[in-house]
Amino acid sequence: MKLIDLDGQFNRRVAKYLAKHAGERTEEEWEDAIAAAYRKFADTPMEEIGTTPRLYFAGMTNGRLVETLKEYLLQDVTVPDILLEELETRGAVPETLALLRETDESLVLYAVHFIGADPQAAPRYAQMLAEDAYDEHVKDEVAEKLAEMADAVTDELLGLLGGPARAYALELLSRTARRDERVLRALVDAFLAADEADLPQYAGYLAAYGDERALPALMQRIEEKIGFAAYRELKFAIEALGGSYDEARDFSQDAAYKKVAEAAEAGAETDIFSPQKK
Which of 47, 56, 85, 167 is most buried, by the most CB atoms less than 10 A from its CB? Predict the structure, then answer.
């Protein structure tokens, strides 16, 4: 398939124009002007394709559009934003959803971008979190989309708790809005079993989930001999769930506490509204 480097053509024109007029606008003004110029470029007829770039891609079937994206990547030609915009308008159709079973990182990331947080993609996104074919870069993007629709895949996420995707699953389960005994138990169990270094993270999950029935677990662990960093996050989580913890604790020898205290003192000394030391 012969491809047209649309973005390359546009960028060359812009570079030539900037070389002559670079100092005439601010950086922000140039950004706005270039964005407007690209929109005009997308709607200007081109002899090579017999129509405008926007209409050229809009006239393609879903399958042809997906194959064109693949060719741009295969031939190492910059993927036109106009093509990606058209794919985004198509959304989660069978041809784009099929890209989520590819293993090429660039192709999959493009697919995740233009499919977005569509519930039709949610089950596949959850599967991808546990598959070795994808690295953290891809999984982080997938998890970001799932966070917007975690309730749609509660069962799938619970099924990931015993495998390598456990960390993703716990974070996403904490984002679910629907109350589910299985989710609460999973989050509480993870919190109770956590090492002190992980306590703040897992306490945050309980706070995010927002079920006050987690308070006994939080109260149990805050009573333990823990450092100031963990204590502070547990106290925040307890208060977020409507509880309170006011027992006096001595953290004067704790390194994290000392840093916070020193920072607070330094801030007070530089506050122009506070009494100044003489």
Answer: 56
Q: Taking the model in full, what pTM does it have?
A: 0.84
List residues bridging with 46 in a β-sheet: 51
- For residue 277, pLDDT beyond 70: no
Predicted confidence at residue 65, as pLDDT, reads 97
- Which residues 6+ apart lie within 8 Å of 78 measured at CB? 5, 7, 8, 72
Would the CA dihedral through 16, 22, 25, 28 be positive or negative?
positive
Cβ neighbours of 244 (radius 10 Å): 9
Integer-rounded Cα Rg, in Å, for the chain is: 26
Mean pLDDT of 85-90: 96
Contact by Cβ (8 Å): 33, 41 = no
- Provide the 3-class DSSP secondary structure of residue 238: helix
Give the distance, in angstroms, between the CA of residue 28 and the centroid of all CA atoms in the same chain. Answer: 26
Q: 51 pairs with which residues across the strands? A: 46
Q: What share of the chain is helix, strand, coil (3-state, %, to 5)?
A: 70, 0, 30
HSE value, Cβ hemisphere, 13 Å, CA-based, for 7: 11
Sign of the torsion angle spanned by Cα atoms 131, 199, 192, 216: negative
Q: Token pair for residue 79?
A: 């993927």
